[in-house]
């Protein structure tokens, strides 16, 4: 029991460390990320106070480090606003579930969260168009292009959508499965049979009365 409590206390921090390492460029394919599942599962399984700051703080620190040390870009970029709105939506979605929810329900929630992230971030990119992509006209056709084709010179956004859904489902299943294993009750030890009580004397005359 004590080991299970310690594991539950350490697991959120351990997940954040592994997640931070997984964000290093090249570790994962484009848009194949544990981010979507981790944000959703943090909302489900983390204590409310921890879920409110630890996942987002980990994302922010790693974003600042990547922008400053690897990409040599401004620490804060325009598309980050859309990303963090989507992350907050994933945490909110996770709070709508409970740790005791069925595994398939949690898996579906993780996939739904990945879909939500994709829609929010690509809609934000189309609506505000921070890089002035000529394809992102303020029309329905421009929005559909943002969701399916994207801008010239980059992989098509439907490929990102595919990777987003696959990684969202995969990592949601892994995280939810691990947490459910930790919450599984320990098997009870078989109770030893109690010693048999001595047989009761038959009702009636005592031996002394029978000899009389």
Task: Describe this structure as you would to a colleague.
With 212 residues, the protein is an all-alpha fold. The chain has one domain. It contains 8 helices and no strands. The radius of gyration is 28 Å and the shape is globular. The C terminus is likely disordered.
The total beta strand count reads 0
Tell me the distance between the termini: 64 Å
Which parts are unreliable, with pLDDT below 50 for 5 consecutive residues or more? 205-212
- Rg computed from alpha carbons, rounded to a whole number of angstroms: 28 Å
If you average the pLDDT, what whole number results? 82
Provide the succession of SSEs. HHHHHHHH
How many strands, which pairing sense, and closed or not: the largest β-sheet?
A: none
What is the global morphology?
A: globular
Number of helices: 8
Strand residue content: under 5%
Task: List the SSEs and their pairings.
Layout: H1 2-22, H2 35-45, H3 48-70, H4 79-95, H5 103-128, H6 140-148, H7 157-183, H8 207-211
